[in-house]
Amino acid sequence: MSVTRNVLDGLIFGVRFILAAGQDVAERNKLNFAAPFAVVDNTTEKRTDVSIANASSSASGLLPQTTGANKVLITSSGNAPIWSSSLVLGTNPSTTGTIATQNACSWWARNSGNTDNVRLIDFASSTLQIGQTASLTLSLHASTTVSLLIGGNARLTVADAVATLSLTTFQFERGVASPVIAQETDTAGSATGDTLTIQAQSCSGATSTGGDLVHKAGTGTSASGKQRFKNAAGTADRLVCEDNGVSINGAGSFGGGVGVLGVLNATTVPNTNPTGGGVLYAEAGAGKWRGSGGTVTTFGPAEPHCPTCGRDCAHEWSNDAEGWHLSVCMWCLTDALGGLGVIRKEQCDGHS
């Protein structure tokens, strides 16, 4: 039988035959190699001959008497075939490796619907790509550990249920809009969400000190960002940390102060008594405290203004459950006590 070049889409494929070493192919009258096999690049017509036995003669030849087990015939020079443990592809291929290819190489497969080609592996110009943007699921399986190495150093190691990062900085690319770190939603009807913990480093030495946990907003040329702690729905700020200070119930108005605490007016003032403590809030700009007994104390006057003198010097105490209310205007009180000589009043410069 004579073997000729089989052409499919411009490529000529060789045929592999397994024969006993030293067996005379012609005498068996099974195969007759009248010319060397060839692999032809249909674009450049670059030809590499692959010979079985005698490449310079039309006579039949013998398979070489000695060949390495499980090796591939990669080229031939006259009557001296060259066998290798590598499958070599392309021009200027790698000189090592079980499969040795040229610089630009790829491995593709047909998708399940036989409608498109799917890239599995592509390598060119020192860049290795695995998979592509088309519908493709990539799974990495290992019995114990999967590691990602950069420069020979393990940067990401996944073992069982623990992922270890060996990085000093973990950051999102600048073009990512509003990135989120969150746990997947549990859709079970009676589920209770799991606790998400972010913890600084612990130390176990006899005289060790645990690491600090730092939350930091971004900086800018005009103003710095804010650290915002929101309600569960993400619709309202409950605690905001800014350069000037910390505010409760929204972004603060600090009156030019730095390192201060601002309390915005309550969205809804408390109407029941807290248990085991008290509630601090602001109403109409006045600082108030409701204790567990129900007494509301106004300690930072803003309203009401005194109906007698009209000044904002009033303090209030009230308890709706007990049905009483007390207001004291400190200005009027000091007027009444002024004759005792224990209180001194002064008018500020520029005011009459």
What does this structure look like?
It is a single chain. The protein is mainly beta. Among the domains are: 6-93, no CATH class; 103-133, no CATH class; 279-340, no CATH class. 3% of the residues lie in helices and 31% in strands. It contains two helices and 23 strands. The protein has helices at residues 25-28, 330-337, and strands spanning 6-8, 11-13, 37-41, 46-50, 72-77, 80-84, 87-88, 99-100, 105-110, 117-124, 127-130, 145-150, 153-159, 162-165, 227-230, 237-241, 245-248, 260-263, 279-283, 286-290, 296-300, 314-319, 324-329. Strands 19-20-21-22-23 form a five-stranded antiparallel beta sheet. Strands 15-16-17-18 form a four-stranded mixed beta sheet, with no helix packed on it. It has a three-stranded antiparallel beta sheet with strand order 9-10-11, with no helix packed on it. It is elongated. The model is unreliable at 1-70 (pLDDT under 50).
Helical region count? 2
Q: Sketch the topology as an H/E string, one letter per element.
A: EEHEEEEEEEEEEEEEEEEEEEEEH
Which of globular, elongated, flat, extended, rod-shaped describes the shape?
elongated
Which structural class should the secondary elements be placed in? mainly beta
Span between termini: 124 Å
Largest beta-sheet details: 5 strands, antiparallel
What descriptive keywords fit this protein?
3% helix; single chain; elongated; mainly beta; 352 residues; four-stranded mixed sheet; five-stranded antiparallel sheet
